Every structure is written in structure tokens, then in C-alpha cells.
Predict the structure.
Amino acid sequence: MHVTFLGTGSAMPTGDRAQTGLLLESEGTDPLLVDCGSGVLSALAGTDAGYEGVRTVLLTHHHLDHVSDLMPLFKARWLAGATDLELIGPPGTADLVQGLFDVHEYMQGRLDLVIREVEPGEFEAAGYQVAAAETVHSMPCLAYRFEADGATFTFSGDSEASEDLAAFADGSDVLAHDCSFPDEVDVDNHPTPSQLGAALAGHRYGQVFLTHLYPHTAGRHEAMLESLREHYAGDVRFARDGLTVTVE
């Protein structure tokens, strides 16, 4: 399984990181786009799959920095003649899309769009076996655990550090987890490195990649890693836009 970080930023753009988006690719599956924040469409266009090759999009939640390139994706696929698309997300996804089409009326009926809403539990998407778990965030949000080719990848979506989410991801070959701010920022709905390290302690992951980075983290990466490693001694790195990780 290959995971490409299309966007590792947040709702506050820096020019160096697009908003949230991941591309999953694996033998015997279709390319799967997870989240579609601002800048993700351009990053996706630079991959071998391209936006024409992605027929399934999976959303963690509906905050703008995770969905703002959805309508641009719809239009790009229509213009390219790739009109079939499945959109999967938590409850409210159908209402979100209907609202987008209400604003952009000329796009109505342009796509063969199938919308599927999912709850915590297990389902299939683009050939992946997926498990979903609710996270601790300011709106309903799902973390996802993907299995393919004997490998396991977990994406936290947006979430505070929690023992439940750490246990959900336990045993993953790769975990990509929200770590939006350094310790000196007083924040909820997202974790700081010390909070995340405490939650991960006692669990096993092959590698952990930190993502959803606010501008506050600039110049603080080494200090953030030191803080996290006071609690969790595993392999932890910062994700960056364009990074492709092999999950095995």
C-alpha cells in the first residue's frame, strides 16, 4: 500500500502546505482520495492517478479545510469526461453536497455521483477494507483504518489525543495523526505533542506521521518531537506535502 500526503496543512494556509488530503494506492484496489481540502486538487493532478483516476472520495468530516476542493474536483472530472464518482462520508455528507449544488446549479446532473454515508464500524471503499471510529472533535468526525495487501494504515482525521483512538490504531504499520500545535498553545479539538505522546504510550505502530500542521508549528518540529518522545519511544516523523510512504 502506498500513501501520498497531498496536503498536510490546516485551515490557516502557509504557502508550503495544502489543506488535508491523502491518496491511497494499492495492488488490486482503485486509487482512493481521503479528504479534499484547498490545494488538494492541484496536488492530485500531479500524481500518476490524477483526478480522472480517482473514482472514490472518502471524507473524515465536513470542515472547510477537508472539503473545499470537492466542487472543483467535481467540475474537473466533468470536464475530463470522468463523470462517475462515489463520495463516502459521515452523516450529513448528502446535505453538504446538495448545498454545493444549490450554489453551483450549472453542475447539477453533470456527474454520475453516488453518495454513501457511513457510521463507526466496518465497510468497503475502492477495494479497501475500512474500519471507522468516532474522534474527539468540534463536529462529527471519523478516523479510518485501512487494510490491503496485508498492510494496515490508520488516519486520525481531526481529533484530540484519546486512548480510544490510540487503541483503534494499535498495530497499524503506519499511523497518520493530527498534531496541529506545539505544547505552548492552549487548544482543544486537536492534540499537542505531549498529549499525543501520552495517548500513544503503550501501543505499537510501525511509523507515526504528524500532520494537520498549523503555522504555529513552524520552527518547532524538533521540540515537538522531543516532547512527544518523552511519552512514546516509537518512530515518529513529520509528514510533508508530496511525501509517499510505503505501508508494509
